[in-house]
Amino acid sequence: MTTYASHAASNVPLATAAAEDFEGQYVPTLVDRWDQLIDWDRRRASEQDFFAELLNGAEARRVLDVAAGTGYHSVTLAQHGFDVTAADGSAEMVERTRRNAAAHGQSFRVLQADWRSLHQHIDGRYDAIVCLGSSFPHLFRETDRHAVLAEFHQALNPGGILIIDHRNFDSIRQHRYQSSGNYYYCGTGATVTVAHVDSQLCRFQYDFPDGGRHQLEVYPVLSAELSSLLIGAGFDTVQTFGDFRENFDIDEVDFVIHVARKS
Ligand code: SAM
Questions:
Q1: Alpha-carbon distance 184 to 35, whole Å?
Q2: What is the pLDDT of residues 127-147, one digit of tens each?
Q3: Residue 134: CB within 6 Å of ligand 1?
Q4: Angstrom distance (rounded) from CA 250 to CA 166
Q5: In ligand 1, which atom is closest to the CA atom of 38?
Q6: pLDDT at 88 (0 to 100)
Q7: Ligand 1 centre from 164 Cα, in Å?
Protein backbone atom coordinates (compact mmCIF):
# COMPACT_ATOMS: atom_id res chain seq x y z
CA MET A 1 0.00 0.00 0.00
CA THR A 2 1.24 3.50 -0.81
CA THR A 3 0.63 6.28 1.66
CA TYR A 4 1.33 9.96 1.35
CA ALA A 5 2.31 12.25 4.16
CA SER A 6 -0.24 14.93 4.89
CA HIS A 7 0.58 18.38 6.24
CA ALA A 8 -2.93 18.54 7.60
CA ALA A 9 -4.30 17.02 10.80
CA SER A 10 -3.29 13.40 11.31
CA ASN A 11 -6.92 12.27 11.24
CA VAL A 12 -7.16 13.27 7.56
CA PRO A 13 -7.31 10.07 5.51
CA LEU A 14 -4.23 9.43 3.44
CA ALA A 15 -4.31 8.28 -0.15
CA THR A 16 -4.07 4.56 -0.63
CA ALA A 17 -3.03 2.44 -3.55
CA ALA A 18 -6.64 2.82 -4.71
CA ALA A 19 -5.91 6.43 -5.65
CA GLU A 20 -3.21 5.27 -8.03
CA ASP A 21 -5.63 2.87 -9.68
CA PHE A 22 -7.11 5.44 -12.08
CA GLU A 23 -9.15 2.77 -13.83
CA GLY A 24 -10.68 1.69 -10.53
CA GLN A 25 -11.65 5.30 -9.82
CA TYR A 26 -13.74 5.50 -13.00
CA VAL A 27 -16.45 3.12 -11.85
CA PRO A 28 -19.36 2.56 -14.27
CA THR A 29 -21.72 4.74 -12.24
CA LEU A 30 -19.32 7.70 -12.53
CA VAL A 31 -18.60 7.05 -16.22
CA ASP A 32 -22.38 6.97 -16.79
CA ARG A 33 -22.61 10.46 -15.28
CA TRP A 34 -19.52 11.96 -16.95
CA ASP A 35 -21.34 13.61 -19.83
CA GLN A 36 -23.83 15.10 -17.40
CA LEU A 37 -20.86 16.49 -15.47
CA ILE A 38 -19.07 18.09 -18.41
CA ASP A 39 -22.07 19.02 -20.61
CA TRP A 40 -20.73 18.91 -24.18
CA ASP A 41 -22.70 21.89 -25.47
CA ARG A 42 -21.76 24.24 -22.64
CA ARG A 43 -18.15 23.05 -22.74
CA ARG A 44 -17.99 23.74 -26.46
CA ALA A 45 -19.44 27.21 -25.93
CA SER A 46 -16.78 28.04 -23.33
CA GLU A 47 -13.77 26.53 -25.15
CA GLN A 48 -14.91 27.71 -28.54
CA ASP A 49 -12.18 26.68 -31.02
CA PHE A 50 -9.26 27.14 -28.61
CA PHE A 51 -7.71 23.69 -29.10
CA ALA A 52 -8.43 23.44 -32.84
CA GLU A 53 -6.76 26.83 -33.33
CA LEU A 54 -3.67 25.76 -31.37
CA LEU A 55 -3.47 22.58 -33.44
CA ASN A 56 -3.93 24.45 -36.70
CA GLY A 57 -1.29 26.96 -35.61
CA ALA A 58 1.13 24.05 -35.21
CA GLU A 59 0.03 22.63 -38.59
CA ALA A 60 -1.02 19.44 -36.84
CA ARG A 61 -3.00 16.88 -38.76
CA ARG A 62 -2.55 13.59 -36.91
CA VAL A 63 -3.76 14.05 -33.33
CA LEU A 64 -3.67 11.57 -30.43
CA ASP A 65 -6.12 12.23 -27.58
CA VAL A 66 -4.51 10.23 -24.79
CA ALA A 67 -7.19 10.90 -22.15
CA ALA A 68 -10.28 10.60 -24.30
CA GLY A 69 -12.67 9.97 -21.43
CA THR A 70 -16.12 9.87 -22.99
CA GLY A 71 -14.70 11.28 -26.24
CA TYR A 72 -15.60 14.95 -26.11
CA HIS A 73 -12.31 16.27 -27.56
CA SER A 74 -11.79 13.36 -29.94
CA VAL A 75 -15.25 13.89 -31.44
CA THR A 76 -14.88 17.68 -31.53
CA LEU A 77 -11.44 17.54 -33.18
CA ALA A 78 -12.64 14.92 -35.69
CA GLN A 79 -15.51 17.28 -36.54
CA HIS A 80 -12.87 19.95 -37.22
CA GLY A 81 -11.24 17.59 -39.72
CA PHE A 82 -8.24 16.37 -37.71
CA ASP A 83 -7.11 12.76 -38.16
CA VAL A 84 -7.87 11.65 -34.58
CA THR A 85 -6.88 8.62 -32.57
CA ALA A 86 -8.63 8.38 -29.21
CA ALA A 87 -6.99 6.52 -26.35
CA ASP A 88 -7.74 6.03 -22.68
CA GLY A 89 -6.55 3.61 -20.04
CA SER A 90 -10.05 2.87 -18.79
CA ALA A 91 -12.03 0.20 -20.64
CA GLU A 92 -15.27 1.87 -19.47
CA MET A 93 -14.20 5.22 -20.95
CA VAL A 94 -13.00 3.61 -24.19
CA GLU A 95 -16.40 2.01 -24.66
CA ARG A 96 -18.11 5.35 -23.98
CA THR A 97 -15.90 7.12 -26.53
CA ARG A 98 -16.82 4.51 -29.15
CA ARG A 99 -20.52 5.02 -28.47
CA ASN A 100 -20.29 8.82 -28.49
CA ALA A 101 -18.25 8.81 -31.72
CA ALA A 102 -20.91 6.68 -33.40
CA ALA A 103 -23.71 8.86 -32.01
CA HIS A 104 -22.02 11.92 -33.53
CA GLY A 105 -21.40 10.21 -36.88
CA GLN A 106 -17.62 10.20 -36.41
CA SER A 107 -15.33 7.32 -37.16
CA PHE A 108 -11.80 7.19 -35.74
CA ARG A 109 -9.47 4.72 -34.10
CA VAL A 110 -10.18 4.15 -30.40
CA LEU A 111 -7.79 2.18 -28.23
CA GLN A 112 -7.25 1.30 -24.62
CA ALA A 113 -3.77 2.41 -23.62
CA ASP A 114 -2.08 3.24 -20.36
CA TRP A 115 0.25 6.23 -20.87
CA ARG A 116 3.03 4.36 -19.09
CA SER A 117 3.23 1.89 -21.97
CA LEU A 118 1.93 4.15 -24.74
CA HIS A 119 4.57 3.15 -27.29
CA GLN A 120 3.28 -0.44 -27.18
CA HIS A 121 -0.18 0.62 -28.34
CA ILE A 122 0.29 3.33 -30.95
CA ASP A 123 1.07 3.16 -34.59
CA GLY A 124 3.74 5.68 -35.62
CA ARG A 125 4.13 9.23 -34.43
CA TYR A 126 1.69 12.10 -34.13
CA ASP A 127 1.77 15.82 -34.91
CA ALA A 128 0.03 16.56 -31.62
CA ILE A 129 -0.99 14.90 -28.39
CA VAL A 130 -3.77 16.27 -26.22
CA CYS A 131 -4.09 15.24 -22.57
CA LEU A 132 -7.04 17.26 -21.31
CA GLY A 133 -9.61 17.54 -18.57
CA SER A 134 -7.06 17.53 -15.71
CA SER A 135 -6.11 13.93 -16.48
CA PHE A 136 -2.33 14.07 -15.96
CA PRO A 137 -2.79 14.57 -12.17
CA HIS A 138 -3.89 10.95 -12.01
CA LEU A 139 -0.16 10.17 -11.85
CA PHE A 140 0.87 10.11 -8.19
CA ARG A 141 4.45 8.95 -8.59
CA GLU A 142 7.10 11.38 -9.73
CA THR A 143 8.82 8.58 -11.64
CA ASP A 144 5.56 8.01 -13.57
CA ARG A 145 5.20 11.72 -14.34
CA HIS A 146 8.72 11.78 -15.83
CA ALA A 147 8.24 8.50 -17.71
CA VAL A 148 4.85 9.48 -19.16
CA LEU A 149 6.05 12.86 -20.43
CA ALA A 150 8.99 11.03 -22.04
CA GLU A 151 6.45 8.65 -23.69
CA PHE A 152 4.46 11.63 -24.99
CA HIS A 153 7.64 13.33 -26.28
CA GLN A 154 8.72 10.15 -28.02
CA ALA A 155 5.29 9.73 -29.67
CA LEU A 156 5.48 13.15 -31.33
CA ASN A 157 6.89 14.03 -34.72
CA PRO A 158 9.59 16.72 -34.82
CA GLY A 159 7.75 20.06 -34.61
CA GLY A 160 4.89 18.39 -32.74
CA ILE A 161 3.03 19.79 -29.74
CA LEU A 162 1.68 18.39 -26.50
CA ILE A 163 -1.33 20.18 -25.00
CA ILE A 164 -1.75 19.21 -21.37
CA ASP A 165 -3.90 20.82 -18.70
CA HIS A 166 -4.87 20.61 -15.05
CA ARG A 167 -7.03 22.26 -12.49
CA ASN A 168 -5.47 25.25 -10.79
CA PHE A 169 -3.81 23.41 -7.94
CA ASP A 170 -1.71 26.46 -7.12
CA SER A 171 -4.94 27.95 -5.76
CA ILE A 172 -6.48 24.71 -4.53
CA ARG A 173 -3.42 23.90 -2.41
CA GLN A 174 -3.84 27.28 -0.76
CA HIS A 175 -7.42 26.26 0.04
CA ARG A 176 -8.74 28.73 -2.47
CA TYR A 177 -10.68 26.30 -4.63
CA GLN A 178 -13.14 28.02 -6.85
CA SER A 179 -14.93 26.80 -9.89
CA SER A 180 -16.82 29.23 -11.99
CA GLY A 181 -18.56 26.27 -13.66
CA ASN A 182 -17.74 27.94 -16.96
CA TYR A 183 -14.87 25.68 -17.95
CA TYR A 184 -14.50 21.94 -18.50
CA TYR A 185 -17.04 20.79 -15.91
CA CYS A 186 -19.92 22.76 -17.28
CA GLY A 187 -22.89 20.64 -16.23
CA THR A 188 -25.30 22.63 -14.11
CA GLY A 189 -26.60 19.79 -11.93
CA ALA A 190 -23.53 18.43 -10.14
CA THR A 191 -21.59 20.16 -7.37
CA VAL A 192 -17.83 19.71 -7.23
CA THR A 193 -16.06 20.36 -3.94
CA VAL A 194 -12.59 19.68 -2.51
CA ALA A 195 -12.97 17.16 0.30
CA HIS A 196 -9.26 17.14 1.11
CA VAL A 197 -6.07 18.72 -0.19
CA ASP A 198 -2.43 18.66 0.80
CA SER A 199 0.79 18.78 -1.19
CA GLN A 200 0.46 15.15 -2.34
CA LEU A 201 -3.25 14.47 -2.64
CA CYS A 202 -6.42 16.23 -3.69
CA ARG A 203 -9.76 14.53 -3.25
CA PHE A 204 -12.65 15.97 -5.25
CA GLN A 205 -16.22 15.18 -4.36
CA TYR A 206 -18.93 15.15 -7.02
CA ASP A 207 -22.50 15.41 -5.75
CA PHE A 208 -25.27 14.82 -8.24
CA PRO A 209 -28.84 16.11 -7.94
CA ASP A 210 -30.25 12.60 -7.44
CA GLY A 211 -28.09 12.12 -4.34
CA GLY A 212 -25.33 10.21 -6.15
CA ARG A 213 -21.86 10.93 -4.80
CA HIS A 214 -18.42 10.12 -6.23
CA GLN A 215 -14.88 10.99 -5.27
CA LEU A 216 -11.78 11.27 -7.43
CA GLU A 217 -8.29 11.41 -5.97
CA VAL A 218 -5.45 13.07 -7.86
CA TYR A 219 -1.97 14.47 -7.37
CA PRO A 220 -2.22 18.28 -7.15
CA VAL A 221 0.48 19.29 -9.63
CA LEU A 222 1.57 22.93 -9.63
CA SER A 223 1.78 24.94 -12.83
CA ALA A 224 5.52 25.68 -12.58
CA GLU A 225 6.17 22.08 -11.59
CA LEU A 226 4.57 20.76 -14.78
CA SER A 227 6.34 23.33 -16.96
CA SER A 228 9.63 22.24 -15.51
CA LEU A 229 8.79 18.54 -15.98
CA LEU A 230 7.98 19.26 -19.63
CA ILE A 231 11.33 20.94 -20.23
CA GLY A 232 13.00 18.06 -18.39
CA ALA A 233 11.27 15.61 -20.75
CA GLY A 234 12.93 17.28 -23.73
CA PHE A 235 10.34 19.80 -24.88
CA ASP A 236 11.92 23.02 -26.13
CA THR A 237 9.33 25.60 -25.15
CA VAL A 238 6.26 25.66 -22.94
CA GLN A 239 3.54 28.25 -23.29
CA THR A 240 0.97 28.49 -20.51
CA PHE A 241 -2.63 29.67 -20.66
CA GLY A 242 -5.21 30.23 -17.93
CA ASP A 243 -8.83 29.47 -18.76
CA PHE A 244 -7.88 29.74 -22.49
CA ARG A 245 -6.28 33.18 -22.09
CA GLU A 246 -2.61 33.95 -22.68
CA ASN A 247 -2.63 36.80 -20.16
CA PHE A 248 -4.01 35.57 -16.88
CA ASP A 249 -3.67 35.86 -13.14
CA ILE A 250 -2.90 32.44 -11.57
CA ASP A 251 -5.09 33.39 -8.60
CA GLU A 252 -8.10 33.90 -10.82
CA VAL A 253 -8.32 30.89 -13.13
CA ASP A 254 -9.97 27.47 -12.83
CA PHE A 255 -7.68 25.59 -15.25
CA VAL A 256 -4.11 25.92 -16.52
CA ILE A 257 -3.18 24.73 -20.02
CA HIS A 258 0.41 24.08 -21.16
CA VAL A 259 1.47 23.87 -24.80
CA ALA A 260 4.85 22.17 -25.10
CA ARG A 261 6.75 22.09 -28.40
CA LYS A 262 9.21 19.50 -29.62
CA SER A 263 11.83 20.67 -32.11
N1 SAM B 1 -10.40 14.17 -21.18
C2 SAM B 1 -11.70 13.77 -20.66
C3 SAM B 1 -12.51 14.98 -20.32
O4 SAM B 1 -11.95 16.10 -20.28
O5 SAM B 1 -13.72 14.85 -20.13
C6 SAM B 1 -11.58 12.84 -19.46
C7 SAM B 1 -10.92 13.44 -18.25
S8 SAM B 1 -10.92 12.36 -16.84
C9 SAM B 1 -10.67 13.55 -15.55
C10 SAM B 1 -9.33 11.58 -16.85
C11 SAM B 1 -9.16 10.46 -17.85
O12 SAM B 1 -7.77 10.08 -17.88
C13 SAM B 1 -9.96 9.21 -17.52
O14 SAM B 1 -10.72 8.83 -18.64
C15 SAM B 1 -8.89 8.17 -17.16
O16 SAM B 1 -9.24 6.86 -17.51
C17 SAM B 1 -7.70 8.67 -17.96
N18 SAM B 1 -6.41 8.25 -17.38
C19 SAM B 1 -5.94 8.52 -16.14
N20 SAM B 1 -4.74 7.96 -15.96
C21 SAM B 1 -4.42 7.32 -17.11
C22 SAM B 1 -3.29 6.55 -17.55
N23 SAM B 1 -2.24 6.31 -16.75
N24 SAM B 1 -3.32 6.06 -18.80
C25 SAM B 1 -4.37 6.28 -19.61
N26 SAM B 1 -5.47 6.99 -19.26
C27 SAM B 1 -5.49 7.50 -18.02
A1: 11
A2: 999 999 999 999 999 999 999
A3: yes
A4: 12
A5: 5
A6: 98
A7: 12
CA 130 to chain centre: 8
Residue 228: which residues within 8 A CB-CB, separation 6 or more? none
- Residues above pLDDT 70, as percent of the chain: 89
User: Residue 258 in contact with residue 230, Cβ under 8 Å?
Assistant: yes
Q: Which CATH architecture has domain 39-168+221-262?
A: 3-Layer(aba) Sandwich (3.40)
The ipTM, to two decimals, is: 0.99
Residue ID of nearest Cα to ligand 1 atom 13: 69
CA dihedral 239, 250, 76, 137 (to 10 degrees): 90
What 3-state DSSP class applies to 85? strand
Query: What is the per-residue pLDDT across 179-216, written as a single tens digit (0 to 9) for each?
Result: 666 666 656 678 889 999 999 999 999 988 888 899 99
Closest by Cα among 260, 245, 259, 243 to 185: 243
Contact 256, 241 (CB under 8 A): yes
What's residue 134's pLDDT? 97
Residues 6+ apart with CB under 8 A from 249: 242
Residue 199 CA to residue 161 CA, distance in Å, equals: 29
Q: How far does the centroid of ligand 1 lie from the alpha carbon of residue 9, in Å?
A: 30
Q: What was the pLDDT predicted at 7? A: 33
Tell me the average pLDDT across 94-109: 97
Give burial (CB, 10 Å; 0-12/13-18/19+) of 249.
exposed
